Amino acid sequence: MVSNTLKQSFTLPCGVAIPNRIAKSALSEGIAEANGRPSEALCNLYRRWGRGGAGILFSGNVMVDKDHLVNPNVMIAEDEAFLEDYTKLAAAAQAEGTHFWMQINHPGRQSPIYLDKAPVSASDVQMPSRMYAQPRPLTEDEILDLIERYGNAALIAKKSGMKGAQIHGAHGYLVSQFLSSLTNLRKDRWGGSLENRARFVLEIYRNMRQKVGADFPLGIKINSADFQRGAFTEEESMEVIQMLDAEGMDLIEVSGGTYERAAMVGTMQKESTKQREAYFMDFIVKVREKINTPLMLTGGFRTASTMETAIKNGELDFVGLGRPFCLYPNVAKDLISGEMTECSVPTLQTGVAKIDRSGMLQTPWHQFQIARMGKGLEPDPDMDVWMVYEKITGKKRSNLEA
Predict the structure, then answer these.
(1) What is the number of other CB atoms lying within 10 angstroms of the CB of residue 187?
(2) b/e sequence 331-362, b meaning 16+ C-beta within 10 Å
(3) Residues facing 17 on adjacent strands
(4) Which tens digits make up the pLDDT trace of 23-39?
(5) Which residue in 1, 37, 200, 368 is deepest, having the highest Cβ count within 10 Å?
(6) Are strands 75-76 and 10-11 parallel, antiparallel or unpaired?
(7) 184 with 113, same domain?
(8) Is 149 helix (H, G, I), strand (E, B) or coil?
C-alpha cells in the first residue's frame, strides 16, 4: 500500500515545500577530487540518489577550510572557485525533484594527524588517540573568520542552485566542540556558561541567514547528547535547540554521539532501543513539546510502520535515513509506494570478536557502496567484509587468522 503519510509534502517556516517526509541524512562520500572540487563521481552518486525519491538529500561534509579536513577527498567551499562544479552537482541531484542541501562543517580537533598536524578547536583538549594531534585554541579573530566562512559556504550553496544548507553541529566536530564543556574550557565570551558556549553556533546561523535571506532553508544537525561524562548533556541540548528555535531555524535534525562514543551508528545502543528503531526518540518527543521548528530524527529507523507512526503522532516531521541509502538507493520511493516495508542493513560479521565488537567495518563498508555508485554501479549487498578490512587496515586476513 502507498504510504500517504510518508508521501505528504511539508512546508518549512521559510515557505519552501519539501516533496515528502523522507530525507537522506548526510553521509561522508570521500569521492571528491583531491583539491576539494566536486567530482564527476559525486554527480553520478547524487544523480542516482536523486532518482530514489527522497524529499531532501543532504550532502556529506563540505569543509570551510582546506587546511582542516575531516577526511581525504572531501568537498571544500572556501570561496566560489568551484561554484560551476557545485552548480553541476546540484542539477544532477535535483533533476527528479528532490531537494539537495549542503552540509557545512569544520572538523576542529577531529582531523586525523596525517591530514592536519596543527588542528584547531575551542580549547587544547586532545582526542584520546594518537591518530589526532593536540589542537590549538582558536583566537578571537579566527573564530570570527570561521563564522564568515560558514556563511560564505551557505551562500555558495544558494548560488549553485541547491535548495538549502545545514550546519553540522553534531558528532564531535567543531560546533559540537564549542557546545561541550568537556572540550570547551575557554574563559572568554565563547566559553563557560551554556549561553557562551552556544554563541558560536548562533553567530554562524545569523551570519548564514544574513547572507542567504529569509526564504532559503537553513538547518542544523545537533546531538541529543554526546554520551560522555562531563560533555554536552540532553538538558543542555534542549536549551540550545530552544535558542535555535527562537532564531528562526527551518529544520533541526537530532542525532547523537561523537567519534569517541558513536551512538549514531547503533553500536552502543541497548538491544531494546534497537528494536524500537529510533535511537533518540525519547529525546525528540521532549523537544517537540518545547519548540515549533520542524524536526528530523536520524538513527535507527528501519520499518515504514514505525516511520509513519512517528509522523502521525506528531513526534517529528522528517525521517532521516543514512546507511539504508547506501544499499537501497530507491529506499524513499519504495517505502512510499509500499514496495518496501523495511530497510534493514546487514550486521557485518567477520567471525573475529575483537573486530566485530568494535563496529569498525560499518562505516567503510557503506562508503565502499557509495564509491560503487560514484562509478555508475549499483550497490553490492554481498560485498566481502574481509576485502573492506584489508583495504582499510592494510592487514591480510590470513595473517589475522594465523
Answers:
(1) 9
(2) bbbbbbeeebeebebeebebeeeebbeeebbb
(3) 11
(4) 999 999 999 999 999 99
(5) 200
(6) unpaired
(7) yes
(8) helix
